[in-house]
Amino acid sequence: MTLQITDEARVRTITLDRPEALNAFNEALYDATAEALIAAAEDPDVAVVLLTGNGRGFSAGTDLLEMHQLATNPDFARGKHGFLGLLDALVDFPKPLVCAVNGVGLGIGMTILGYADLAFMSSTARLKCPFTSLGVAPEAASSYLFPQLLGRQDAAWVLLSAEWVSAQEALEMGLVWRVCEPDDLLPEARRHAELLARRPISSLVAVKRTMTEPLRSEIRAARERENAAFAELMGGPANLEALTAFAEGREPDFTALPPGW
Protein backbone atom coordinates (compact mmCIF):
# COMPACT_ATOMS: atom_id res chain seq x y z
CA MET A 1 0.00 0.00 0.00
CA THR A 2 1.37 3.41 -0.99
CA LEU A 3 -1.54 5.62 0.10
CA GLN A 4 -4.01 5.93 2.94
CA ILE A 5 -7.34 7.45 1.88
CA THR A 6 -10.08 8.47 4.32
CA ASP A 7 -13.26 10.52 4.00
CA GLU A 8 -14.85 12.68 6.69
CA ALA A 9 -17.10 15.74 6.51
CA ARG A 10 -16.70 15.96 2.69
CA VAL A 11 -12.89 16.15 3.07
CA ARG A 12 -10.85 13.36 1.48
CA THR A 13 -7.51 12.94 3.21
CA ILE A 14 -4.79 11.42 1.02
CA THR A 15 -1.77 10.34 3.03
CA LEU A 16 1.43 9.38 1.23
CA ASP A 17 2.42 6.09 2.83
CA ARG A 18 6.00 5.02 2.11
CA PRO A 19 7.38 6.10 5.49
CA GLU A 20 10.44 3.86 5.18
CA ALA A 21 11.45 5.97 2.14
CA LEU A 22 10.25 9.30 3.58
CA ASN A 23 7.35 9.00 1.12
CA ALA A 24 9.63 9.34 -1.90
CA PHE A 25 7.72 8.97 -5.14
CA ASN A 26 8.40 5.82 -7.11
CA GLU A 27 6.31 5.00 -10.18
CA ALA A 28 3.74 3.18 -8.02
CA LEU A 29 3.23 6.18 -5.74
CA TYR A 30 3.02 8.61 -8.67
CA ASP A 31 0.31 6.39 -10.18
CA ALA A 32 -1.61 5.94 -6.93
CA THR A 33 -1.59 9.66 -6.11
CA ALA A 34 -2.68 10.65 -9.62
CA GLU A 35 -5.49 8.09 -9.49
CA ALA A 36 -6.57 9.35 -6.05
CA LEU A 37 -6.76 12.95 -7.27
CA ILE A 38 -8.69 11.95 -10.39
CA ALA A 39 -11.14 9.93 -8.29
CA ALA A 40 -11.61 12.79 -5.81
CA ALA A 41 -12.21 15.23 -8.65
CA GLU A 42 -14.98 13.00 -10.00
CA ASP A 43 -16.60 12.13 -6.66
CA PRO A 44 -19.63 14.38 -6.02
CA ASP A 45 -19.37 13.76 -2.28
CA VAL A 46 -15.82 15.14 -2.00
CA ALA A 47 -15.47 18.91 -1.63
CA VAL A 48 -11.84 19.27 -0.54
CA VAL A 49 -8.69 17.16 -0.63
CA LEU A 50 -6.18 17.27 2.22
CA LEU A 51 -2.75 15.89 1.26
CA THR A 52 -0.14 14.94 3.84
CA GLY A 53 2.50 12.31 4.56
CA ASN A 54 2.89 9.42 7.00
CA GLY A 55 5.91 9.37 9.29
CA ARG A 56 8.83 11.79 9.35
CA GLY A 57 8.52 12.91 5.75
CA PHE A 58 6.01 14.79 3.66
CA SER A 59 7.82 13.52 0.57
CA ALA A 60 11.51 13.09 -0.19
CA GLY A 61 10.76 13.72 -3.86
CA THR A 62 11.46 11.28 -6.65
CA ASP A 63 12.95 7.98 -5.49
CA LEU A 64 16.57 8.48 -6.55
CA LEU A 65 17.40 4.78 -6.68
CA GLU A 66 14.56 4.29 -9.15
CA MET A 67 15.57 7.49 -10.97
CA HIS A 68 19.04 5.98 -11.43
CA GLN A 69 17.46 2.90 -12.98
CA LEU A 70 15.34 5.08 -15.27
CA ALA A 71 18.44 6.99 -16.37
CA THR A 72 20.56 3.91 -17.03
CA ASN A 73 18.07 1.20 -18.07
CA PRO A 74 15.99 1.96 -21.19
CA ASP A 75 13.85 -1.13 -20.51
CA PHE A 76 12.77 -0.01 -17.03
CA ALA A 77 8.97 -0.32 -16.77
CA ARG A 78 7.28 3.04 -16.22
CA GLY A 79 3.93 3.50 -14.52
CA LYS A 80 0.59 4.36 -16.10
CA HIS A 81 0.71 8.02 -15.01
CA GLY A 82 4.19 8.64 -13.65
CA PHE A 83 5.49 12.05 -12.70
CA LEU A 84 3.95 13.84 -15.68
CA GLY A 85 0.58 12.21 -15.08
CA LEU A 86 0.60 13.37 -11.46
CA LEU A 87 1.26 16.92 -12.64
CA ASP A 88 -1.63 16.65 -15.10
CA ALA A 89 -3.88 15.56 -12.23
CA LEU A 90 -2.70 18.49 -10.10
CA VAL A 91 -3.19 21.05 -12.87
CA ASP A 92 -6.65 19.71 -13.65
CA PHE A 93 -7.79 19.18 -10.05
CA PRO A 94 -10.91 21.37 -9.83
CA LYS A 95 -11.51 21.44 -6.06
CA PRO A 96 -9.58 23.04 -3.18
CA LEU A 97 -6.30 21.25 -2.43
CA VAL A 98 -4.96 21.69 1.11
CA CYS A 99 -1.42 20.47 1.85
CA ALA A 100 -0.16 19.69 5.35
CA VAL A 101 3.64 19.45 5.25
CA ASN A 102 4.38 17.21 8.21
CA GLY A 103 8.09 16.65 7.60
CA VAL A 104 10.87 16.86 5.07
CA GLY A 105 9.87 17.86 1.54
CA LEU A 106 12.29 17.60 -1.37
CA GLY A 107 11.73 18.09 -5.08
CA ILE A 108 8.10 17.32 -5.84
CA GLY A 109 7.62 17.34 -2.05
CA MET A 110 8.24 21.08 -2.31
CA THR A 111 7.15 21.99 -5.84
CA ILE A 112 3.72 20.41 -5.29
CA LEU A 113 2.99 23.39 -3.03
CA GLY A 114 2.73 25.49 -6.17
CA TYR A 115 -0.60 23.74 -6.73
CA ALA A 116 -1.89 24.00 -3.16
CA ASP A 117 -4.75 26.37 -2.51
CA LEU A 118 -3.79 26.39 1.17
CA ALA A 119 -0.51 25.04 2.58
CA PHE A 120 0.19 24.33 6.25
CA MET A 121 3.64 23.36 7.50
CA SER A 122 5.00 21.86 10.69
CA SER A 123 7.46 24.13 12.48
CA THR A 124 9.99 21.28 12.41
CA ALA A 125 9.63 20.51 8.69
CA ARG A 126 12.13 21.56 6.03
CA LEU A 127 11.94 21.93 2.27
CA LYS A 128 14.46 21.74 -0.54
CA CYS A 129 14.52 21.93 -4.33
CA PRO A 130 17.62 19.79 -5.01
CA PHE A 131 17.70 20.22 -8.79
CA THR A 132 21.14 21.80 -9.20
CA SER A 133 22.63 19.32 -6.73
CA LEU A 134 21.27 16.54 -8.96
CA GLY A 135 22.49 18.14 -12.18
CA VAL A 136 18.97 18.60 -13.57
CA ALA A 137 16.41 21.35 -14.21
CA PRO A 138 13.32 22.55 -12.31
CA GLU A 139 10.07 20.60 -12.48
CA ALA A 140 6.32 20.91 -12.04
CA ALA A 141 6.25 24.43 -13.55
CA SER A 142 8.09 25.66 -10.45
CA SER A 143 10.16 27.94 -12.70
CA TYR A 144 6.91 29.84 -13.30
CA LEU A 145 4.84 29.21 -10.16
CA PHE A 146 7.57 29.94 -7.61
CA PRO A 147 8.40 33.44 -8.91
CA GLN A 148 4.64 34.11 -8.82
CA LEU A 149 4.33 32.87 -5.23
CA LEU A 150 7.64 33.92 -3.71
CA GLY A 151 8.96 36.76 -5.84
CA ARG A 152 11.85 36.45 -8.24
CA GLN A 153 14.79 36.54 -5.84
CA ASP A 154 13.42 34.10 -3.27
CA ALA A 155 12.44 31.78 -6.12
CA ALA A 156 15.88 32.14 -7.66
CA TRP A 157 17.55 31.22 -4.36
CA VAL A 158 15.29 28.23 -3.79
CA LEU A 159 15.72 26.86 -7.32
CA LEU A 160 19.41 27.69 -7.85
CA SER A 161 20.94 26.94 -4.46
CA ALA A 162 19.48 23.52 -3.57
CA GLU A 163 19.63 24.69 0.06
CA TRP A 164 17.17 23.84 2.83
CA VAL A 165 14.24 26.18 3.54
CA SER A 166 12.89 26.27 7.09
CA ALA A 167 9.22 26.52 7.95
CA GLN A 168 9.64 30.14 9.02
CA GLU A 169 11.44 31.00 5.79
CA ALA A 170 8.71 29.25 3.77
CA LEU A 171 6.11 31.32 5.63
CA GLU A 172 7.97 34.58 5.07
CA MET A 173 8.42 33.76 1.37
CA GLY A 174 4.70 33.04 0.96
CA LEU A 175 5.13 29.39 0.02
CA VAL A 176 2.97 28.27 2.96
CA TRP A 177 0.01 29.98 4.60
CA ARG A 178 0.38 28.80 8.21
CA VAL A 179 3.14 27.25 10.34
CA CYS A 180 1.93 25.01 13.17
CA GLU A 181 3.48 23.04 15.97
CA PRO A 182 3.78 19.39 14.91
CA ASP A 183 0.85 18.13 17.00
CA ASP A 184 -1.36 20.98 15.77
CA LEU A 185 -0.61 20.60 12.05
CA LEU A 186 -3.24 18.09 10.97
CA PRO A 187 -6.01 19.39 13.28
CA GLU A 188 -5.45 22.94 12.03
CA ALA A 189 -5.26 21.93 8.37
CA ARG A 190 -8.36 19.76 8.78
CA ARG A 191 -10.27 22.55 10.55
CA HIS A 192 -9.75 24.85 7.57
CA ALA A 193 -10.44 22.07 5.05
CA GLU A 194 -13.72 21.22 6.76
CA LEU A 195 -14.72 24.87 6.85
CA LEU A 196 -14.23 25.04 3.07
CA ALA A 197 -16.05 21.74 2.64
CA ARG A 198 -19.19 23.23 4.18
CA ARG A 199 -19.47 25.59 1.20
CA PRO A 200 -21.24 24.53 -2.03
CA ILE A 201 -18.94 22.41 -4.16
CA SER A 202 -20.18 24.20 -7.28
CA SER A 203 -19.02 27.53 -5.83
CA LEU A 204 -15.67 26.13 -4.69
CA VAL A 205 -15.04 24.78 -8.18
CA ALA A 206 -16.09 28.06 -9.79
CA VAL A 207 -13.80 30.13 -7.56
CA LYS A 208 -10.82 27.87 -8.17
CA ARG A 209 -11.44 27.80 -11.92
CA THR A 210 -11.59 31.58 -12.17
CA MET A 211 -8.38 31.89 -10.13
CA THR A 212 -6.37 29.25 -11.98
CA GLU A 213 -7.58 29.53 -15.58
CA PRO A 214 -5.31 32.53 -16.38
CA LEU A 215 -2.29 30.48 -15.23
CA ARG A 216 -2.91 27.38 -17.33
CA SER A 217 -1.18 28.45 -20.55
CA GLU A 218 1.85 29.71 -18.59
CA ILE A 219 2.03 26.47 -16.58
CA ARG A 220 1.88 24.45 -19.80
CA ALA A 221 4.64 26.53 -21.40
CA ALA A 222 6.83 26.31 -18.28
CA ARG A 223 6.40 22.53 -18.15
CA GLU A 224 7.43 22.24 -21.79
CA ARG A 225 10.57 24.31 -21.18
CA GLU A 226 11.41 22.35 -18.03
CA ASN A 227 10.81 18.98 -19.68
CA ALA A 228 13.11 19.89 -22.55
CA ALA A 229 15.84 21.03 -20.17
CA PHE A 230 15.35 17.96 -17.94
CA ALA A 231 15.59 15.61 -20.94
CA GLU A 232 18.80 17.33 -22.02
CA LEU A 233 20.40 17.11 -18.58
CA MET A 234 19.15 13.73 -17.32
CA GLY A 235 21.79 11.11 -17.94
CA GLY A 236 24.40 13.80 -18.61
CA PRO A 237 27.72 13.97 -16.75
CA ALA A 238 26.44 16.07 -13.82
CA ASN A 239 23.28 14.00 -13.31
CA LEU A 240 25.12 10.68 -13.52
CA GLU A 241 27.73 11.89 -11.02
CA ALA A 242 24.96 12.98 -8.63
CA LEU A 243 23.06 9.70 -8.93
CA THR A 244 26.19 7.58 -8.68
CA ALA A 245 27.27 9.50 -5.59
CA PHE A 246 23.85 8.94 -4.02
CA ALA A 247 23.98 5.21 -4.74
CA GLU A 248 27.50 5.06 -3.26
CA GLY A 249 26.58 7.10 -0.18
CA ARG A 250 28.92 10.01 -0.86
CA GLU A 251 28.72 13.69 -1.79
CA PRO A 252 28.85 14.40 -5.54
CA ASP A 253 31.97 16.06 -6.93
CA PHE A 254 31.12 18.30 -9.87
CA THR A 255 34.58 19.88 -10.13
CA ALA A 256 35.93 17.23 -12.53
CA LEU A 257 33.09 17.50 -15.04
CA PRO A 258 33.78 18.51 -18.66
CA PRO A 259 33.80 22.29 -19.34
CA GLY A 260 30.28 23.73 -19.40
CA TRP A 261 28.86 21.07 -17.10
Walk me through this protein's architecture.
- This protein has a six-stranded mixed β-sheet with strand order 1-2-3-5-7-10, with helices on both faces.
- The protein has 261 residues and is α/β, with parallel strands linked by helices.
- Helix 1 packs parallel to helix 3 and helix 2 crosses helix 11.
- The protein is globular.
- The protein has eleven helices and ten strands.
- It has helices at residues 27-42, 64-72, 82-92, 108-111, 142-150, 152-161, 167-173, 182-197, 201-212, 216-233, 237-248, and strands at 3-8, 11-16, 48-53, 57-59, 97-101, 104-106, 118-122, 126-128, 165-166, 178-180.
- The longest helix has 18 residues, at 216-233.
- Helices cover 48% and strands 16% of the residues.
- The model has no long low-confidence stretch (mean pLDDT 95).
